[in-house]
Design a protein that fits this description.
- The protein is mostly helical.
- The protein has a single domain (2-385), classed as Glycosyltransferase, CATH 1.50.10.10.
- The chain is built from 14 helices and seven strands.
- The longest helix is centred in the N-terminal third of the chain and has 31 residues, at 2-32.
C-alpha cells in the first residue's frame, strides 16, 4: 500500500512538472481570448493598451523562439525555449512607447552582459530610445564605436557567423540609433554609416517589380535570401526610414523622405481589406498584429510629417486608421494585443506560425494609437479654423 502511494505521488509530481509549464500558459491564452476584439472606442482601446503595456514592461520575460507549446520541459531546462536577446529589443520598443524612464533591472543585466561580449544590432534599439529621452550613457558611445569599427569599409552585418549576409532587421535596429547618435554627438561618421546601410539595402535587397524587401541578401552574389515581402520585414524597412527621418541631419532628410514615401506607396498596395497586413505581404492570409502595428504606425507618422493637401498624406492617414481598426479586433479585454507572429526562430526562410501577444506589437500599437491621436487632433483643429 505504501509503495502504491509513493508511486502515485511520484507520478503526480512528474505529471505536474511536465504538464503544468505547458498547460497553464495554454489555459491563460484560451481564457484571455474570450471576448477578444470587442473594442469600438479608440480612446478606451488606447488607454487600456497603455495600461497593459505598463504591466508587460514591469515583468519582462524571455521571448519564445520555438513553436512547440507542449512537452517543453527539456527545451526550457536547456535554455532553447526562449531568448533573452530577443526580449532585449522587444522591450526596448515597449519601453520607448510607454515612456519608461528607467530600464527594468532584468533587461539591463542582459544588455550589460551582451555589451561585454560583442556588438549586436539588437542592442542599438535600447540605445536609440535612451538617446531620444536624453540619456546619453557611456555604453551608447561604446556601442557606436564598435559599430563604426565594423562598418568602416562598408556596412554592418547582423551576425559575425554570417558576415556576407545583410538582413532587413539590421536596418531598423541600427540606422535610427546611428542617425540619432550623429546628431547628439556631432559625429558625421555615424550618420554616414547609417546612410550607407540604407542605400546598400535599397539598391540590392528590393524586388525590382513589387518594391518589397527581401529578408536578407548575400553581398558578393547579391542573391536574395528568404522571401520577399515578409510582413515584419516590411515593417523593419519602413520604420528604419521613418524613425531615421525624425532624428537625421538636414542633409539627409530629403533622401529619407523620398524613400519613405516610395516605401509607403508600395505597402499601401499590400494592405488587406480589413486594414491589417499579412505575415507574408503577397499571400493574403489573416492579418498579423506585429506587421500591422509597425506599418500602421509608420503610415501615421509619415502622414504627420507630410503637408496638408498632399494626396499621400490622406492615404497614409486612412491606412493608419484602418490598421487601428484591425488591431482593435486583435486586442483582448485586458488591453493585450494578440496574434503577433512569433520569432523567426529558424533564421532565413523559416517563419513562425505561432500567434501570441508580444512586446513589439504592443509597443507599436500604442505608438500607432498615440500618433493617430495627434494626427486626428491636428486635422480637427484645421477644419475648425476653416
Amino acid at each position: 500500500m505504501a509503495i502504491a502511494i509513493i508511486c502515485a505521488a511520484v507520478f503526480g509530481v512528474l505529471l505536474a512538472v511536465t504538464v503544468l509549464p505547458d498547460a497553464i500558459p495554454a489555459l491563460c491564452a484560451f481564457v484571455g481570448r474570450v471576448g477578444i476584439g470587442r473594442w469600438t472606442d479608440p480612446v478606451a482601446w488606447r488607454e487600456q493598451m497603455i495600461r497593459a503595456g505598463r504591466r508587460m514592461a514591469m515583468h519582462p520575460k524571455p521571448i519564445p523562439v520555438t513553436e512547440r507549446r507542449h512537452q517543453t520541459l527539456l527545451l526550457r531546462l536547456s535554455g532553447h525555449y526562449a531568448s533573452k536577446l530577443v526580449m532585449l529589443w522587444h522591450h526596448g520598443v515597449l519601453s520607448g512607447a510607454i515612456g519608461t524612464a528607467d530600464e527594468h533591472p532584468n533587461v539591463k543585466r542582459v544588455r550589460d552582459r551582451l555589451l561585454l561580449d560583442k556588438p549586436l544590432p539588437e542592442l542599438a534599439v535600447s540605445a536609440f530610445y535612451a538617446l531620444r529621452r536624453g540619456d546619453h550613457a557611456p555604453w551608447t558611445d561604446e556601442l557606436a564605436r564598435r559599430f563604426l569599427e565594423i562598418g568602416v569599409d562598408g556596412t554592418v552585418y547582423y551576425r559575425a557567423s554570417a558576415r556576407q549576409d545583410r538582413f532587413v532587421d539590421t536596418l531598423w535596429m541600427l540606422c535610427p540609433f546611428l542617425f540619432c547618435y550623429a546628431q547628439k554627438t556631432g559625429d558625421p561618421c555615424a550618420g554616414d554609416l547609417a546612410k550607407r546601410q540604407l542605400e546598400e539595402y535599397l539598391r540590392i535587397g528590393i524586388h525590382p517589380t513589387t518594391g518589397l524587401p527581401a529578408h536578407a541578401f548575400e553581398i558578393d552574389s547579391k542573391a536574395p535570401l528568404g522571401v520577399y515581402g515578409w510582413g515584419r520585414g516590411c515593417g523593419f524597412l519602413f520604420l528604419a526610414l521613418i524613425e531615421s527621418l525624425g532624428v537625421c541631419g538636414a542633409d539627409t532628410k530629403e533622401y529619407l523622405l523620398r524613400e519613405s514615401k516610395k516605401c509607403a506607396e508600395t505597402l499601401l498596395a499590400t494592405q488587406r481589406k480589413d486594414g491589417g497586413w499579412s505575415a507574408l505581404a503577397l499571400v493574403q492570409t489573416g492579418a498579423e498584429a506585429s506587421a500591422s502595428a509597425m506599418i500602421g504606425y509608420g503610415m501615421a507618422e509619415l502622414a504627420l510629417r507630410l503637408p496638408n493637401g498632399d494626396a499621400l498624406r490622406a492615404q497614409c492617414k486612412q491606412s493608419a486608421q484602418s490598421a487601428r481598426h484591425s488591431l482593435m479586433r486583435f486586442t483582448r479585454r485586458n488591453g493585450l494585443v494578440d496574434f503577433a507572429q512569433g520569432d523567426s526562430h529558424g533564421g532565413i526562410g523559416m517563419y513562425a506560425a505561432s500567434r501570441e501577444p508580444l512586446p513589439l506589437a504592443q509597443g507599436y500599437a500604442i505608438r500607432l494609437a498615440r500618433t493617430l491621436q495627434l494626427l486626428e487632433g491636428a486635422d480637427d483643429g484645421i477644419q475648425n479654423d476653416a
